[in-house]
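Q: My labmate handed me this sequence with no annotations at all. I'd like to see what the chain might look like in three dimensions before we decide whether it's worth expressing. Could you predict it?
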Amino acid sequence: MILKYHLSIAFTAYNSAKNLNMQFKRIFAECDNEKFKNFLEIVISDNCSKDNTRKVVNFFIRKSRQKKNITIKYYRNKKNLGFSRNFIKLIKLVNAKYCILMNDDDYPDKGFYKEIFSNIKTRDSKTMLITPLSKYRKYYPSIFGFNKVSYIINRGSILSGIILKVKQMKKYKSYSKSLYPQTELFLDYFLKHGAEDLNMNANLKNVDTKIKLKERFNDRMQRGKDLAFFDKIKISEKFYKKQKINFIEFFYSIYSIYKWGLGMKLELNKQGSQKYETIFFNEIIKYKRRKLLKLIIFLIFIRNIFTKNRFFYLKILKTFI
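A: Here is what I predict for the chain of 321 residues:
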């Protein structure tokens, strides 16, 4: 296969008209010039949207034909395949040297694509490249580097802003039944090729931050009662069982997932969503490794023992004593 483009900007879409309109405006404002000619393609796999997604995309397809600096490839599924199958389809459709995977609701700051252009135009590396995400710490090694696997699992679940070399990306085939196929892909890719932050000033910011957590139980991904909590756990388990990660990396990844999970419980409590808080908590404590779970809950409590939320975490700990 001859690669015509240097970068694919790849979106999974479902009822994405409003968000894609914003995304296209940013891309065209920065990239619709001679410098980007034959540099990038935009690839969209639409999961049978019921809104005006196709209309919005077609408008920008017509716009792209005026100067011919940007190529847009739009694919629409005849039926909703679910997020996982649509994502797997998407990565098969890109035709570039590199691919940046994006959620439509993660919106880039001004200058985002210009900085990516400067960073990768002469690059020829297999290393995973991580663009900055607002309010999310950068990738860096701590505790002798054992945090790296947990970082990729948690940062990967966000999807947006990860850049992979397409040839290596397409080699991965072994996906579990999970709402986070991208996390499985990212972890496999990272273990083979490593990762680094791109030196950028522009961030990605989520535009759906005002949505209350209880609404995420029935969002476009249909995460269910545990907000797809165990989907990430299963990926850690899979790589540990296959001896691709060691026990300390596995332990720290499970710890970090539960730290996130109890943080979600706390946020639901603060938002007055006690019903969803209870449902969510009752789901995430079903982990089969009971001794490991008890140790993790204890360590999370110790981590918060001098914070204003210590009694919240003490109450959780008491349920395991």
